[in-house]
Amino acid sequence: MARKKKHDSKLVVRGFLRGQLIDSETGKVVGDSGWQQNKLTNDGLTNLARLTGQQSGSYPVSYAVMGTQTAAVNMSQTAVVGGVNVFKALNLSTSGTCTLTCTASFSSGDLAASCVVGAAGLYYTNSALFAMQTFATSNWASNQDFNLTYQVRFATA
Fold first, then answer.
1. CA-CA 20 to 30 A from 69: which of 20, 37, 84, 143?
2. pLDDT digit string (tens) for 114-135?
3. 124, 148, 153: which is closest to 138 by C-alpha?
4. Beta-strand relationship, 99-106 and 144-156
5. Under a CB-based contact definition with an 8 Å cutoff, are residues 153 and 15 in contact?
6. Which of helix, strand or coil describes residue 80?
7. Is the Cβ–Cβ distance between 139 and 114 less than 8 Å?
8. Among candidates 64, 61, 104, which has minimal Cα distance to 84?
9. Half-sphere exposure of residue 111, counting CA atoms within 13 Å on the CB side?
10. What is the pLDDT of residue 2?
């Protein structure tokens, strides 16, 4: 008897973020987190499944928030600890490499005062956390902007 060929494919979803502090006057990068792999939260994964099935209660990723959190991200976490700014609308694009790129630019005017940032998160509504990560803290001064890039990469393994 001939063996049946096993068809096996897994969907792998990974997120990455990069944050850069920019001097508002010169445009020079004064701080860079480098690419950091982030965590998709339980709520984020559930929402992703709902989006796939076009179920009610599903929402696209729409906002970014910066925070002061330095503790490791917990999959059951529902918010960025110590949010330091308003929810910033994301610019979204996709590429032929199955990657969703989300960008947001925070201006110095988005801050009430200088602060230390150490986390960034994506929200799919203004109250539901999709993904986040912590990074080496940076002093965000009132004369600096913060550029955030998130990538959500889909692949089969």
1. 143
2. 788 888 999 987 678 899 998 8
3. 148
4. antiparallel
5. yes
6. coil
7. yes
8. 64
9. 20
10. 64
